[in-house]
Task: structure prediction
Amino acid sequence: PTPGAPATASATTSSRAAFAITVSTPDQEAILAAASLEAIPPLPRTVPAPPAIASWSGVDTVIANAAREDVVADAVAGAPGVGTTVRSRETRLAARKLWIAFAVVAQGRVVVDTGARRALETGKSLLAAGVRSVEGEFDPGSPVEVVDTEGSVFAKGLARHGSAEIGRVAGQRSDVLPAGSPAVVIHADDLVTIPA
Result:
């Protein structure tokens, strides 16, 4: 690779599992070794770490030193001491969910209560009743982060309505909303929750 620049290679180990290899410079490897993998945010606000995307795609990733001899072959063979391995998650995200989680930049935030968080983590849609507040200005269809009352981002989705409309109906139960008001803020099909 070009001095100071990372190089990548990939190989498929079977028809059911993929394997990605990212080789890096010694400086990059030292930084990665010093950092906990928990520090890789599951829902970054800008461009996510490739290992996070690979993990949710069902791909194991090895981060290793490009200067090491036979680094790609050793990584594929599972040789000890090659680098940092990020294992794939048991549950894969569908392509649309990966796009929502990692490819689009959030335009704002929707703060939800504890009950709404529990509902979203079991695959439900976000209703107006569970919304505490809205942060930022965004239009219908915009990607937004979903945060709990502690400020932790735990989901991301495509808002069905703009920030002003969501703010107007926040906290109101479906049975008391004025006619024509939106009950569903983010539909389950447009929402992805990623646990830490």
Observations:
- The radius of gyration is 20 Å.
- The helical segments are 26-34, 50-56, 71-77, 95-103, 114-120, 163-169.
- The longest strand covers residues 18-24.
